[in-house]
Each structure stands twice: as C-alpha cells, then as structure tokens.
C-alpha cells in the first residue's frame, strides 16, 4: 500500500470516535478555512448543531496551519458548519503539519471513508483522488481507466497495464478497499454522463445508481421523467428494468411503423421509372418491408 495513503487511513482509524481531550487546543471559527472537496451535501446539520449545543463538539477537527494565523480544515467541515449553526465561537482542533498536496489527499481519503456519500459524490471523489495522486487532469485519468479496461478485455493497441500510472491506480483502489478499479470503470464512470435530472436525483439520494443507469437508456425526457418519479416512489429495480425495456421496445416498433409508411409513400413514384429501374426498386422495397416487418 502507498505509504501516504496507509498513514492517512491509519490516522483516520485512530481519530474515529476519539473524544476531545481536556485542555486540548481550540481555535476560533474565524481562523478556520474550509477546503474544496467533492462532497456537496451536508445532511443532518441541524440535528448535529442541536447535539453540539447540548454536549459540545465531541471530536476535534483536523486542521493544518497556513502560516498567517489561519488554519485550513483537513477533516471535520461538517462539524465546523454545525458549530457555526449552534452559535459556537471556537472549536477543538488537532493541528497537523501537512503539505498542501498531502492535505488534499488526506481530505479526499477522509471523505471517501464516509458512509453517507452518494455514488455520484464517491465517483467524483475517487477521480479527484487519482487526479491529485497521479498529477493528471481528471479527463486524462478517465481515459487511462478506460484504456486499462480495454486492455483487460483483450483489445489490441492499449498496452498500459504495465505502466507506472496503471500500477498506481491499482494500488489506490486496493488501499481504499471499496471496490476494484474494474468495477469502478464499469459501474461508476457512466454516472459522469447522466442527464441532469438523473444526476440531481442521485445526488439527493432519491434513487440508487443502478436505477439511474437504467433510466439513462430512455432518451425521451417526458417518458424518463415519469419513470424517474416511479423510481423515487420506490419502484423496484426489477420492475424498473421491465418498464424501461417496454418503453424502448415501444419506441422501436414506432420507428418501424414510421419507416413502413415512408416506404408506402414511395410506391406511386415507381411509375416514373424505367421498367428496369422500376423492377429493381420494387425488389428493394419488398426486401425493406420484409425487414421492417421482421420476416427476414
């Protein structure tokens, strides 16, 4: 396992549930600076704020000094936000010396260990971690993952598995222990291209990612919206798949009917052709109609 990721995971395990020590360091909220992170939702803040009003902050925030009297939050932004809501002026902290890159990596690892991350946030977080670790833009990381998968499938022209970057990807996924990189490419990368309505529902936690991927197959917005509402209401994945399949089959039959009508519309124009061309056109039309009707 990578030394830094191992230290980060070890530190997180050590911090898990560790109470605030008497006489420990505290800092004013005004001195704390939240750090960018993939997590967009902070649910249950009011409940946590109420708990903080009664019992205080039970676990210190992890921060690093910025050198100007301010401290960047490495882990614990949810507690920071709830403490502000609770009206606190200061919070307990644990100060660690980390470089900016180490802090970003630590924060990403910490976020990925949380159980309340939805699949879309987790996907963005894993890609951000790989991007930071490999020193490559997210788009290049996605391309690398897809080339790795193609090589695994035996497709020629993708000799990347022996590269240091591919080996590093495998190490990171092994360190995180949440899923394999193959599963990530197959089940999570497609979430990046979801329509906005499905992405929003997924970010809200209203539907599982498997339902989002199924609904993605429906291109008609009105039909997809209706199916999305059923999924929100608790429609099982099995029933949802059946509904989606019926919609797609109905669309195919509709396209077949439209094509058949267009073929019939061509028949009156055959009279304007020469006998040889007309015979050829009639043969082609007959073959097309047979294909449309599923006879061949």
Please describe the biggest sheet, giving its number of strands, its sense, and whether it closes into a barrel.
5 strands, mixed
The secondary structure category is alpha/beta
- Count of discrete alpha- or pi-helical segments spanning 4 or more residues: 13
- Basic shape: elongated
CATH architecture of one domain: Alpha-Beta Complex
Distance between the termini: 57 Å
Strands of the largest sheet, in order across it? 1-5-3-4-2
How would you state the average pLDDT, rounded? 81
The helix-strand sequence is HEEHEEHEHHHHHHHHHH
Could you give the count of β-strands?
5
Q: Work out the radius of gyration.
A: 28 Å
Helix content: 55-70%
- Main CATH class of one domain: Alpha Beta
Indicate the low-confidence ranges by residue numbers: none
Indicate the CATH topology of one domain: Conserved hypothetical protein from pyrococcus furiosus pfu- 392566-001, ParB domain
Organism: Thermus tengchongensis
Family: Belongs to the ParB family.
Pfam family, one: HTH_ParB
Protein name: ParB/RepB/Spo0J family partition protein
